[in-house]
């Protein structure tokens, strides 16, 4: 069957427990499906298709909830990931301080050129805020990572964040392709080859875990 | 999910929905209209499977209510989907849900074959 997309990016949501990673992926809130079978089991990952400058991009977005209690995310989780959303809760000082630890964890375990973005989540809860937007911005400047405040509850900036991260990964990939291909010999062939490689299922996904 | 017998049969397909063994129309979420699968990308198959109900009766604690489902669209590569959610694994299956409103299961994913199956009765054709 013909290929139905141009790019496939694996993205991870990382951060302390309770910062709202699952809410970013999963609209738990008070909707009709709150008591559904799906919410009981929980979402592992989602596939979303977006259009970036005329290219069809598939995002595979993984939640790491439940893993973070080990304070680190295992190497297996990072394997093949091209983008990481670092999430903290603006009403939780500790979760903000821990972003530095998560960045260290990423540097130790993930691929060196993984794209990162910092999300200050729950920005709708202004009365309970412990971390100012300026501090978030300062941290982002320090690490040279993009930053945005989000509210998963109000769907504020969540889509924007994913588009931004995906666009940065795409730009990085295209730059790499340009560097590895002599000018004039740049055709869709290389791009196709590259994304075909990504299509291979990763071993940790294919492993069947028995609960 | 119980181990129902899989009998693949492509006969008796509903003509208004299936053409050349594939979904003629776009597959969307029944509840929010989110696009799940583009046309002509799912292979129509008949197989009897038990799927948990989308709305579980919470009065029956610890008991999952299922129903038998017969008609599915078979999707070999998960990245063929436009928008879809995969639950955590239960007995070598992941359940499929709407990526936008989380309604589901709209089908299931088999961890061994890595193929996905979307139940016709759980989605909307558009």
What do you see in this structure?
The complex is a heterodimer of chains A (211) and B (126). With 211 residues, chain A is α/β, with parallel strands linked by helices. Chain A has one domain (7-177): P-loop containing nucleotide triphosphate hydrolases (Rossmann fold, 3-Layer(aba) Sandwich), CATH 3.40.50.300. Chain A is built from 9 helices and 6 strands, in the order βααββαβααβαβααα. In chain A, strands 2-3-1-4-5-6 form a 6-stranded mixed β-sheet, with helices on both faces. In chain A, strand 2 (43-52) and strand 3 (55-63) form a beta hairpin. Chain A is globular and about 55 Å long. Residues 28-34 and 188-211 of chain A have low confidence and may be disordered. Chain B is mostly beta strands and 126 residues long. Chain B has a single domain (3-51, 70-125), classed as Metal Binding Protein, Guanine Nucleotide Exchange Factor, Chain A (Beta Complex), CATH 2.170.150.10. In chain B, 0% of the residues lie in helices and 40% in strands. Chain B has no helices and 11 strands. Chain B has strands at 18-19, 22-23, 27-29, 35-37, 43-52, 66-75, 84-87, 93-97, 107-110, 116-119, 123-125. In chain B, the strands form 3 sheets. A 6-stranded antiparallel β-sheet of chain B has the order 5-6-10-9-8-7, with no helix packed on it. In chain B, strands 4-3-11 form a 3-stranded antiparallel β-sheet, with no helix packed on it. A two-stranded antiparallel ribbon of chain B has the order 1-2. The radius of gyration of chain B is 14 Å and the shape is globular. Chain B starts with 17 loop residues before the first strand and ends with a strand. The mean pLDDT of chain B is 90. The interface between A and B is large, with 34 and 41 residues. Chain B: Keywords: Guanine-nucleotide releasing factor, Protein transport, Transport. Chain B: It comes from Bicyclus anynana (Squinting bush brown butterfly).
């Amino acid at each position: 069957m013909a290929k139905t997309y141009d790019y496939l990016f694996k993205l991870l949501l990382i951060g302390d427990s309770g910062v709202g990673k699952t809410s970013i992926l999963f609209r738990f809130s008070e909707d009709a499906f709150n008591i559904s079978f799906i919410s009981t089991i929980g979402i592992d990952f989602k596939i979303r298709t977006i259009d970036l400058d005329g290219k069809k991009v598939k995002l595979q977005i993984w939640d790491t909830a439940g893993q973070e209690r080990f304070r680190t995310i295992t190497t297996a989780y990072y394997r093949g990931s091209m983008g990481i959303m670092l999430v903290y809760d603006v009403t939780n000082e500790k979760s903000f301080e821990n972003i530095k630890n998560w960045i260290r964890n990423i540097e130790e375990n993930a691929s060196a050129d993984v794209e990162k973005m910092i999300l200050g989540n729950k920005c709708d809860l202004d009365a309970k805020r412990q971390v100012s937007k300026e501090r978030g911005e300062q941290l982002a400047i320090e690490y040279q990572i993009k930053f945005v405040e989000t509210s998963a509850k109000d769907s504020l900036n969540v889509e924007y964040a994913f588009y931004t991260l995906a666009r940065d990964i795409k730009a990085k990939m295209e730059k790499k392709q340009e560097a590895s291909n002599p000018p004039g010999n740049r055709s869709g062939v290389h791009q196709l080859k590259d994304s075909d490689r990504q299509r291979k299922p990763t071993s940790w996904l294919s492993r069947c875990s028995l609960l | 999910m119980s181990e129902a017998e899989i009998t693949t049969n492509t006969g008796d397909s509903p003509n208004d929905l299936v053409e050349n063994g594939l979904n003629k129309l776009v597959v969307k979420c029944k509840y929010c209209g989110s696009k799940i699968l583009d046309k002509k990308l799912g292979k129509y198959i008949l197989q009897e499977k038990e799927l948990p109900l989308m709305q579980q009766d919470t009065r029956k604690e610890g008991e999952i209510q299922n129903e038998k489902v017969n008609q599915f669209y078979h999707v070999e590569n998960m990245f063929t989907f436009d928008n879809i959610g995969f639950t955590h694994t239960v007995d070598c299956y992941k359940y499929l849900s709407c990526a936008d409103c989380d309604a589901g299961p709209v089908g299931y994913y088999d961890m061994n074959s890595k193929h996905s199956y979307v139940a016709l009765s759980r989605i909307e054709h558009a």
